[in-house]
Structures are given as C-alpha cells and as structure tokens.
Amino acid sequence: MNKGKTALLLLLTASFLYSAPTHAETASPAQTPPAPISIYMDGKQLQPAAPPVNQSGTVLVPMRELFEHEGAKLAWNNDSKTVTAIKGSTTLTYRIGEHTASLNGKAVTVDVPGQILNGYSMVPLRYVSEALGSTVNWDPASKTVRIMSTVLDETSIRWGVNLRSQPDAEKGASLEMLSAGAKVHVIREVNALWLEVQTQDNRTGYISAKPKYTDYTSPSLAELQGDALIETGKKYLGAPYVFGASPDQTDTFDCSSFVKRVFQDTLSVDLPRVSYDQAKTGTEVNLSNLRKGDLLFFSARDLDIGHVAIYAGNNQILHTYSKVLGVHIEPLDGQWKKRFVTARRVF
Q: Which positions make up the signal peptide (predicted)?
C-alpha cells in the first residue's frame, strides 16, 4: 500500500473513532422534566407560591391562594388541619387528607384528598373552585387550567373610581378612570378597603371597596368593613364628651359627631350631623340580626331619638354620652335595651 492510501485509511479510521457514539450515548435519552401546570382565572394567570402538582389526574394547588382568588374568606385550624371557606351563602369545610368535605352542611366526596407538601397545604383545585361557584376547564395538551367565575361584570360602578395597579391610593398607579354605570367583575376582596376587579375589556386592577363607589356587597366584605369601623372608633377611646362638638375635629365628640366621623374616615359614608336624621338613613334591621357597624338609636333627653351608638359585636356598643367615660365600649343591656328605638344598616 502506497503512502497516500495509508494516510487516507488512517484519517478515515480516526474520524470514525471520534464520531462513533459511546454505549452511554446510545442508551435512551434522559427524560425531560414535565411541563409546569399553568392556571388562569378569568383570563389572569395565577402565580401560586408552590407549583401545582398532578395527583392521579387531579391538580392540587396551595390552599390559601386559591380560596382568596375565589373571593372566599378563609379560616384555618392548624391543630386539626381543617379549613373553612365562606363565599356569599356558600360554606365549605374540609380537613386535609380526608375523602369527604362539608358543603353547606352536606357531606360530599373528594376523589383525591388534599395533602401537605413541602410545608404547603394543597387542595384539589377543581373541587374547591366548582364548590365556590366557578367553572373549571383542563387543557391536557398545554397543561393549563382555566377557571371562570359563573357571573362576570355583575358589579356596577356608582361613582367614578380609579382602577389602580396596587391596592393603595398612593403607591398604586392609576390605570384608568371607571365611570359611573360601568360594569366590573370582582375577583376577590383584598381587604376592607380594596377589591381586585376585572373590567369588561379584560383589564385587571384594584378599586376602592367603599360603598359609595360600587354596588358590590357580600357578608365577608361587610364583616371586614365592620371590623375596620370599630378599629377606627377605638382610636378615640377616652376622648372627652362635649354636647354639640364639631364633627370637623377629633379632640371632643358628642354621640352623633363621633358616629359621623368614624363612618366618614373609614368608609367615606357621609352621615347627617344629628342622631334623629341619622336614623333615617340605610335600612332597618332587627336586634337579633345585628352585625358590626350597624347603628343603634335610643331615646334620650325627652326625645324619641336622642342618642346613637355603633354595634361592636358580641352584644357590645361603641359610643359616647358621658363626660366621665368619654368614648367607650359597654354591653347592650339594662337601660340601653329599655331605651332602644331602632337599628339601621348603612353599608
């Protein structure tokens, strides 16, 4: 063999040895990690604190975020690992790990139980969302869950309000002004003062939850706002009582100037100045159905209605009438039950 052929043979042999796959390379390729599950609610992608997991065809997600996005108020018992969620007239109670839950007092089956993974309480997404009134669709090709509330655009804007990027009037940039008559869908109640909403053109943001701006109401929001009213009122505990005190200052109060100030500062509800006129606002409620923030009116100073107080829950009232006590909380009993005239609900 001449030198040229020998050189070519050596070159081809080296090329083959360099490119030939090893045993490891000829084995089955390593499996790629499964694609993550995406979740959208009313067109907005959710970003759960822990990644959703698929258990036997059931998607489990972090409990708290799902309930909050569904607009439910959440209570968690860490000892029993039991969650209670309330949304409107629906109450759902579930214990992590169980195959049954309680929906409005009736036992229902949970095919795949919730579980605790990496410190997160994970619950079955479809079951929870449908129990709270939403529709759930699963796209296996894209591994996408789409949740749609049963009713969109059910809340009307009463008064022009800013749609903001954050639930904060100072930090949240104004995205647009929603005019009176516009419709929005409430995604969730952020707190007593803010709602997360979706507009008719599918923009999402935050608007004031104060009753002057929308006709949105719910038992959970009313409870949050009642708590906020009482907390505002408690800031003035001990403030001196002065009959005829101006509602434009907070050094002194009489009964109606105190109530007027608390409602204005907390919920922007502008009540009349005197208790007799305040008793004409809102709707009448029975003593047996009181909730925090309701107004109670009593006879006083030989007047049919001469005193007003705020119901503080647990049969307590927040008010002022005494130069000795100033603003204070006391039981709704004794003389107050005897002098009670009417109760009104203004939010």
A: 1-24
Q: What are the average pLDDT values for consecutive 10-residue runs of the chain, which has 347 residues?
A: 44 38 48 79 86 93 90 91 90 96 95 94 94 89 84 82 97 96 90 92 92 94 96 98 96 98 98 98 96 98 96 98 97 96 97
- Copy the structure tokens of residue 118: 């990496």
| Burial class of residue 267 (count of CB atoms within 10 Å of its CB; 0-12, 13-18, 19+) | buried
- pTM assigned to the model: 0.64
Fold of 220-345: endopeptidase fold (from Nostoc punctiforme) (3.90.1720)
Spatial CB neighbours of 90, under 8 Å, sequence gap ≥ 6: 72, 103, 104, 131, 132, 133
Separation CA 331–CA 343 (nearest Å):
16
Residue type, 45: Q
- Domain 38-149 adopts which CATH fold? Copper Amine Oxidase; Chain A, domain 1 (3.30.457)
Compute the distance between CA of residue 221 and CA of residue 214 in angstroms, rounded to an integer. 13
What whole-number distance in Å separates Cα of residue 221 and Cα of residue 249?
Answer: 29
List the CATH code of the domain at 155-214: 2.30.30.40
| Domain extent listing, the chain | 38-149, 155-214, 220-345
Q: Which residues are catalytically annotated?
A: 255, 307, 319
